[in-house]
Write a structure and sequence with these properties.
heterotrimer, B: mainly alpha, 2 domains, two-stranded antiparallel sheet, 2 strands, globular, C: alpha+beta, Alpha-Beta Plaits, 7 helices
């Protein structure tokens, strides 16, 4: 194709303002929830000295993982040279930025001392993967911003390929870092495994693309632009492959743990007798987040846009469930003090499955992060031409029909 | 003759320049003495601070910050620039605190609009059961109060975490 | 400025330290208070030996720690802090039951220090693991990393803190091995209480001093760290666990 044409969202309709208003309201509610938690202290949340990372972390890590995944569409165009994905690149870069902003906002607002953000930026312990992540996140903003500029400024277009390559490598590193937050934790049986890093990368592919698909279909439709079956079909199939890959990694992770006798406890807890966590795993992560979307995406049901949007949303829900099981389930299962010995009494809940139920402010803060990411994206699409004018089959890939 | 005229003129010029330069300063001092805006700073124990007042006004935060890292990370527990030492001398015996409306720390920080991040963790009261401060010459007649209406505030370098 | 009595003693102590701490030469065996201006050094590593055989069904160590360091609760067990706690263990195979205090183990290779993004979680030269609450951002990653659940997050505003044990909302805290007492040449509050009112189950001392009481005890009988599989070389060791 010659040149993709982009156009801003007109953004004057009642519908646009309704969407913006709704997302804005969700964001402000999240902010209010954070204020409430910080004012009273974390005891008003479901978190405790046993479950130190709660629902906000579920949303924050999900969004951060999804952010790097949302950039994939652009990477496929720039790095792997697929022309079909080129008109999709700008939105991909934009979502990568806003999803990361949303996730980081939740993460920071859940800190015990969010007012000390400047300390996190000025004091570094370079043995900490968390410290590396702070650099990776801030670097990601800068790199993707430059990448977007290269893509959007015609005179800089020539540089978009190397910029895209660099952004791609950076995002792989970033998700490796995010996965390693858990992979590098020696104390807990649910973590402490190298598979966390690649598993998080594959998860990012799925979550990022699922969100991308929903946003693309919605914004193209609501702004009256055509989205042809070629692009739609490609993205749908790609999502299917990613969802299957996530299931593969989850299987490898659990098989490995099942082989290690020491880890039979945590595996029994997650897979069999962990109550809410077991349900969340089988129903949320595997069924809703994996099996059902796969059926929709790879069957005739996938012809329906509505069903594919549903499948994407299920992937998002399944992703949140997966994060819940990983982050909260991993903490809820007790750590042994001595191998071969069981804690029978303790004033500090040693040896017991820690109880946790999400409180309203935590959920509102987490959802607020999603709201923030989407409200920023919506507004940006009005201000700058991120969205292609048309993704009809003829526009998207003239060679497709010739072939 | 011309030489003398020149000298007189020169002297006048110098005097004028000097006056011009001094005038705003004088004016400022008069104004501040009249209005006396600012915190009321009181000291209750000892007769002088560990450093001259002017030095402490400008640099107390640097000294406390330095001492903080020395104590926390190296275990150096000299008293001179410790927050404990500040509190022991400057806490108001009525409120037993350096905070509060007329508290030594708070009143001034309030005036300068610089938030203090010491007392979310540190107690704002002198230690009760610990050793009494070394300069605690009890003064039952009632506190060697020194009221300083602070005319010139040292520049505050922002909040010290 | 004239020297105060305290400072004079401090400097004197420092001078004596210069003599006694010459390599391999130690004239005075007693735990010596460092002078206030002297930094903690790697010449020492503070440790604790807890003899489970002597540890009975009491909690004087816990009470003493709470009183010393002022970490009171709000009757909310899930969020209330615990710097030291009593735990009862049962052997899965034999059913043998034992009771022991668990506190920060002051690891030589502390996972909490490794993961802390700002360096707020740190190990002092003399092996005491601490939280620098001035630069703690409250991310709680150290609590995720600690195998012993030794750390607590301060979930609400604090009042009446001890001047030597500051603690505040939104930061993480844990056993300091009573660093303020150790710096003054005293033993931790839990050890003192256990020795005085309890069962003399705790021995505190310098692991780098071959002649210290704790080293003699350690050499005289078996001991093990908690979670030996992690190979963290803890400063706290247990006998009979």
């Amino acid at each position: 194709m010659a040149h993709a044409h982009y156009r801003n969202l007109e953004g004057r309709s009642l519908g646009f303002y309704a969407v913006l208003g709704l997302l804005g309201a969700i964001t402000f509610a999240g902010l209010g929830a954070a204020l409430y938690m910080e004012h009273h202290g974390h005891w008003v949340t479901g978190m405790s000295n046993q479950i130190v990372w709660g629902t906000p972390h579920v949303f924050a890590v999900f969004l951060i993982v999804a952010a790097s995944g949302a950039l994939n569409v652009a990477s496929i165009a720039s790095v792997f040279g697929r022309q079909l994905y080129k008109p999709l690149s700008r939105l991909s870069g934009l979502l990568a930025l806003t999803l990361l902003a949303g996730g980081l906002a939740v993460l920071v607002l859940d800190l015990g001392r969010p007012d000390r953000l400047i300390v996190a930026m000025t004091y570094y312990n370079f043995k900490s993967i968390f410290a590396w992540n702070i650099l990776l996140y801030t670097g990601f903003f800068a790199i993707v911003a430059v990448y977007l500029w290269m893509m959007m400024e015609r005179r800089m277009n020539d540089y978009s390929k190397p910029a895209g390559m660099f952004a791609f490598l950076w995002r792989l590193t970033l998700t490796t870092g995010t996965g390693s937050i858990f992979g590098f934790l020696v104390a807990r049986d649910a973590y402490d495994t190298a598979v966390m890093a690649p598993m998080f990368i594959v998860m990012s592919f799925a979550y990022g693309l699922a969100i991308y698909l929903v946003v693309l279909i919605a914004s193209m439709r609501w702004s009256g632009r055509e989205l042809g079956d070629v692009v739609f079909g490609r993205l749908r199939n790609l999502l299917g492959v990613f969802v299957a890959a996530v299931l593969y990694f989850v299987t490898v992770y659990h098989l490995t743990n099942l082989y290690i006798t020491q880890r039979h406890g945590i595996e029994g807890f997650i897979l069999l007798n962990g109550g809410a966590y077991t349900k969340m795993f089988w129903l949320g992560q595997v069924l809703i987040g994996g099996a059902v979307p796969l059926v929709i995406l790879f069957s005739r049901l996938g012809q329906s846009r509505a069903l594919v949007v549903l499948a994407s949303m299920l992937v998002v829900l399944g992703g949140l469930a997966q994060m819940y099981v990983t982050i909260i389930g991993g903490q809820a299962y007790p750590m042994p003090l001595m191998p071969g010995k069981e804690v029978v009494a303790s004033s500090f809940f040693d040896g017991m499955v820690a109880s946790y139920s999400p409180s309203l402010p935590e959920v509102v803060l987490g959802v607020g992060g999603i709201g923030l990411a989407l409200v920023m994206a919506t507004f940006a699409m009005k201000v700058l031409p991120f969205l292609p004018q048309s993704l009809s089959d003829a526009d998207a890939d003239p060679h497709y029909k010739a072939a | 003759m011309q030489k003398i005229r020149l000298m007189v003129f020169g002297a006048l010029a110098v005097a004028a320049a000097g006056w011009l330069a001094a005038a705003p300063v004088l004016a400022a001092e008069t104004a501040s003495a009249k209005s006396a805006i600012g915190p009321v700073i009181k000291t209750y124990k000892g007769d002088k601070c560990v450093e001259p007042t002017e030095e402490m006004r400008r640099n107390h935060m640097k000294k406390i910050l330095h001492q903080r890292d020395e104590t926390m990370h190296k275990g150096i527990r000299t008293r001179k620039y410790s927050l404990k030492n500040c509190i022991d001398c400057h806490a108001d015996p009525k409120t037993n605190s350096v905070l509060g409306e007329n508290g030594f720390c708070e009143s001034c920080h309030e005036y300068a609009a610089v938030s203090i991040d010491c007392f979310t963790c540190h107690s704002s009261s002198p230690e009760k059961n610990g050793q009494p401060p070394k300069a605690a010459s009890t003064d039952p007649a009632g506190l060697m109060e020194k009221t300083i209406s602070s005319a010139v505030m040292g520049t505050t370098n922002g909040n010290q975490p | 400025m004239s020297l105060s009595r305290r400072e004079f003693i401090g400097i004197g102590g420092g001078a004596i330290a210069g003599i006694t701490l010459a390599p391999g030469l130690r004239l005075v065996e007693l735990a010596r208070a460092r002078s206030p201006e002297e930094a903690a050094t790697q010449m020492q590593r503070w440790g604790l030996l807890i003899d489970i055989g002597r540890c009975q069904d009491c909690d004087v160590c816990v009470t003493a720690c709470r009183t010393e360091n002022g970490w009171y609760g709000h009757n909310r067990p899930a969020t209330d802090p615990q710097w030291i706690r009593k735990v009862t263990l049962k052997d899965n195979q034999t059913g043998y039951v034992e009771s022991l205090p668990v506190l920060c183990q002051h690891c030589e290779e502390p996972p909490c220090v490794d993961v802390c993004p700002t360096g707020a979680s740190f190990k002092r030269a003399d092996g005491i693991v601490l939280v620098d609450k001035h630069i703690c951002i409250g991310c709680r990653y150290c609590m995720m990393a600690c195998p012993y659940k030794a750390r607590s997050f301060v979930h609400e505003d604090t009042i009446n803190q001890k001047s030597y044990a500051p603690r505040g909302k939104g930061t993480v805290e844990s056993c300091t091995l009573c660093v303020h007492r150790v710096d003054a040449g005293k033993i931790p509050a839990c050890v003192e209480a256990c020795t005085k009112d309890g069962n003399q189950a705790m021995v505190f001392g310098d692991l780098k001093d071959p002649n210290s009481g704790i080293n003699k005890h350690l050499a005289a009988g078996p001991s093990t760290p908690l979670r030996p599989d992690l190979n963290l070389n803890t400063g706290v060791r247990y006998r009979g666990v």
